[in-house]
Amino acid sequence: MLKNGTVVTEFLLLGLSRNPKTQIFLFGLFLLIYLLALIGNTLILLIISFNKRLHSPMYFFLANLSVIDIGYTTATVPKMLMNYLSQDKTISLAGCFSQMFFFISFGGIECLLLGVMAYDRYAAICHPLHYSVLMRPKVCISLAAAVWILGLANSSVHTVMMSLLSFCQDNVIQHFFCDIPPLFQLSCSDILANQIATFVVGGGVAMTSFLLTLVSYIYIVLAILRIRTKEGRLKAFSTCASHLTVVNIYFGTIFFTYFKPNSIYSQEHDQFLPVLYGILTPMLNPIIYSLRNKDVQGILRKTMCRTV
To answer: What gap in Å lies between CA 130 and CA 123, rounded to an integer?
Structure first.
């Protein structure tokens, strides 16, 4: 706790618990999750890179997703793990803003990429004969580049505007990383412009992806309903089930975290939501999207057989 008028130069990250025994448990749990996320996403990247059979639009976007998920977890988890083992749980002002920049960058990029992946499924199911033209390599690369540029630009806006705020009250963040809502709570400046940017710029990124996903799935559902056989409908829907699962978790937690009034934000209650979309989802994505895929499973079996 700082005295009034003192300028903040560092923040104190309390993490998810102050209980020493609980912290040791959380250290082991999140270390395991982080390692699984790194191994799973790296494995997917290697499989896609070294197998020409998987050099298709769907797997190109999955490779991008794996890179994003590695960066997503690395932006927050290593610092959290260090804090659980150390008495010094501080983070500098510059370090705090850097952590926020990378977390929001990878979050925004993944958000937009989920929309692009929904469009990819739309093209595959609704226009199978024109799929190779609609999703030709040049288009895929352009879509991926746009997703990365927009995600980085979105994060830059929030980080620059946050750096212009003054922090001269409490420097204790009851969270495991530096995020927009808890920093708003600690600022002694007028945060109205920042809140508007969160709703307009951040909301624009989220809503663009959400609407692209929604419209894509409306057409997908209509196309599936026109399939005459039950087996055909189930097969078509199964290609989208994994994506829908992640979309529901991801968009639900993001909208609840960032797009609600600052007055009802609670550091104690809302600190667990980013665990879902920022730590657990990157670990689950390789399983949800790829390891359930028959092509990837076949390649893994062949690789294991050669190794043995």
So the answer is: 8
Helical segments of the chain, H only: 20-49, 57-74, 77-85, 93-126, 131-134, 137-163, 180-186, 192-197, 203-225, 230-258, 267-270, 273-275, 281-285, 294-307
Give the span between the Cα atoms of 33 and 36, in whole angstroms: 5
Q: For the segment 170-219, what is each residue's pLDDT rounded down to a tens digit?
A: 888 888 899 888 888 888 888 899 889 888 998 888 888 889 988 998 99
* Domain extents in the chain: 10-307
CB-based contacts of 184, cutoff 8 Å, min separation 6: 191, 194, 195, 262, 265
Amino acid at 121: R
Whole-number Å distance between alpha carbons of 265 and 99: 21
Fold held by 10-307? Rhopdopsin 7-helix transmembrane proteins (1.20.1070)
Query: Between helices 20-49 and 77-85, what is the axis angle to 10°?
Result: 150
**Of the candidate ranges 94-108, 158-172, 241-255, 258-272, the one whose mean pLDDT is the lowest:** 258-272
- Tell me the whole-structure pTM to 2 decimals: 0.86
143 and 116 Cβ atoms separated by less than 8 Å: yes
